[in-house]
């Protein structure tokens, strides 16, 4: 069984069936199976979450009384003044 591992250092491929130590080969196979099962669960959870969100949105679309209007807040830009060597002020955009 060939396994490809992607990490920060790049991609590495290993042939687990060529590992001579039976204990290491068994451990590697168990870990591979666990990772595979976790990947399937993760995909199932993502699918289920997306489906529930879509169902909730569809349900609430039929209830206009539950809609909350969000007011857009005007964001004031703060200008920080930093003293210069001569004591005068300059803004942070310089």
Low-confidence stretches are none
Give the end-to-end Cα distance, rounded to a whole number of Å: 59 Å
Oligomer: single chain
> What amount of the residues lies in strands?
15-25%
In one word, what is the shape? Answer: flat
**Order of strands, widest sheet:** 1-2
- Tell me the helix content: 40-55%
Q: What is the average of the pLDDT values?
A: 87
Major sheet attributes: 2 strands, antiparallel
Structural class: alpha+beta
- Report the order of strands and helices: EEHEE
Strands, total number: 4
Describe the structure.
By secondary structure, this protein is an alpha+beta fold. 43% of the residues lie in helices and 19% in strands. It contains one helix and four strands. The protein has one helix at 22-61; strands spanning 2-7, 10-15, 81-83, 89-91. The strands form two sheets. A two-stranded antiparallel sheet has the order 1-2.
Keyword list:
94 residues; two-stranded antiparallel sheet; 43% helix; alpha+beta; single chain; flat
Secondary-structure blueprint:
Elements: E1 2-7, E2 10-15, H1 22-61, E3 81-83, E4 89-91
Antiparallel strand pairs: 1-2, 3-4
Quick recap:
The chain has 94 residues and is of the alpha+beta class. It has one helix and four strands.
